[in-house]
Design goal:
The chain has 172 residues and is an all-alpha fold. It is built from eight helices and no strands. Helix 6 crosses helix 8 and helix 7 crosses helix 8. The longest helix is centred in the middle third of the chain and has 19 residues.
Length: 172
């Protein structure tokens, strides 16, 4: 029994880098993303017995993270302390153009509604299957595909410098 828990714990720890990447892209701010990852790992560890052996632990952890993020929104914004100028920051990418493009992409991602952004990140960044995303977020697969399509179109428009198309129909 302890060997099975040890294997599951190793698997959980192996998922941490992907949790960090997703949380950073989802939340934007490094400290808030790290807090979200820490809360996710803590909750996952406490509920490790609930994980179904043989299922995708990554999807299970993303589901926990999604629920924690929803809870954060319901509670409101957490108080944070701003970094001072002496705090070391990560080095910018080697090429200035690449760094600018990444900043533009990050800014465009922030303009997407969170429901679209999280699906775009899970499919595009984490390379999860639609079915796994639907399971992790507790929504139908068709909703995943619809939100992903709208997110991609809006992101494409924002990156091209165009206003996103608004497809509202007038009903009489």
């Amino acid at each position: 029994m302890s060997q099975m828990r040890g294997d599951a714990a190793d698997h959980l720890l192996a998922c941490v880098p992907r949790l960090r990447r997703y949380a950073r892209a989802l939340v934007g701010e490094r400290a808030a993303a790290e807090d979200l990852v820490q809360d996710t790992v803590e909750r996952g560890w406490a509920r490790l017995a609930d994980w179904q052996r043989g299922s995708d632990m990554r999807a299970w952890l993303f589901s926990i993270m999604h629920n924690l993020r929803v809870d954060q929104h319901r509670r409101g914004v957490l108080d944070t302390e701003p970094l001072d100028e002496d705090t070391p920051q990560p080095a910018a990418p080697g090429q200035v153009c690449a760094g600018l493009e990444l900043r533009e992409l990050d800014a465009a991602l922030r303009l997407l509604p969170e429901a679209q952004r999280e699906i775009l990140l899970l499919v595009g960044l984490e390379e999860m299957r639609y079915e796994d995303v639907a399971q992790a977020l507790g929504i139908p697969v068709g909703t995943v595909m619809s939100r992903l399509s709208r997110a991609r179109e809006k992101l494409r428009a924002l990156m091209d410098g165009r206003a996103p198309a608004i497809s509202l129909k007038v009903v009489k």
